Amino acid sequence: MQKPIALMLALCALAARGDDDEALSASLLEGVYSSLAVDPGSATADGASAVAVTVTVRNVSGDPVRGRQVLLIATGTGNTLVQPSSTGADGIARGTLVSTVAETKSISAKLLRHGRPPVLVLQTASVRFHGLLTYALLFNTSTGDVSRTAPSGIPSGNAPFTLEAWAQNSGGTDGHVLTYGHDDDNNDDAALFHYQGNICLWRAGYEDICSSAAWPVDDLFHHVAVCWDGSTVTYFLDGKKVRSLPHTPLSYGVANFLRLGNSVALSGQQWNGMLDEIRISDVVRYTTDFTPEDRFTTDAHTSALFHFDEGTGTVAHDDSSNQNDVTFGSPPPGWVLR
Fold it and tell me: pTM above the 0.85 mark?
């Protein structure tokens, strides 16, 4: 809700109460101009992994309000909320939330006032608690699409990016981990895949940019990443740089589709094996050897992040702020415990 509209609604509510007290009016407007944020946006439902909840109380002039008591509210079950103390000189009050139930929670806050009803902070936030068990998706050569249309925040043009995943490869000539692009015809898309055994990046315009590094075919999960910095493609396998290739500028259109475990319009390019922890970033994350994270984290440069920890259902949630959730086609991939 935009603030001018919210302001009008607050004033209308005030008028309906027949109360023209200046202090009450100012308190109601604090609910409009205050903010609420959570960090991180997801956590394990183990009763210990905490999400920080920050409420910043401001008045109509945008100035911080000191000494305001804040009450946090969370939907769902299995929650333990540590309520914040009164706001400090910066207008900020901080609390925490842990949970033992895997689900998405909606977090809201009320500003408490002595002798008067509380004021609701209009801004809310959501946080997803995932299960203790770690799942992956099992694909084969007949698995249907896992995809969405019109994804948000996906790198385009010649902008830098990193594509990475934990993947188990059961073999095959050609298998795609992820594909995105503008036209569903393979002519204007990017892809992380293996071709004839090698780790490859697909370039807009029907061109494979392949490393000389083999994508292992075994029962293990391997971390694979490809980075583009605007002039060079760099490949990493299990945290080790395996090749850098200078290349002419890429030209990717603004993405209107995102597909996991398959190519775009070509048949026979489904992934054969298991996929877990897929992340697309709009920045070069790796330039030298590194130790891969077992579980990727989200930050301001995360375009999409899939943990595949749902363990059931036909939707895989994107843990980035872009919320690029993907839906399973038919036949769907299988949920498997790692």
Answer: no
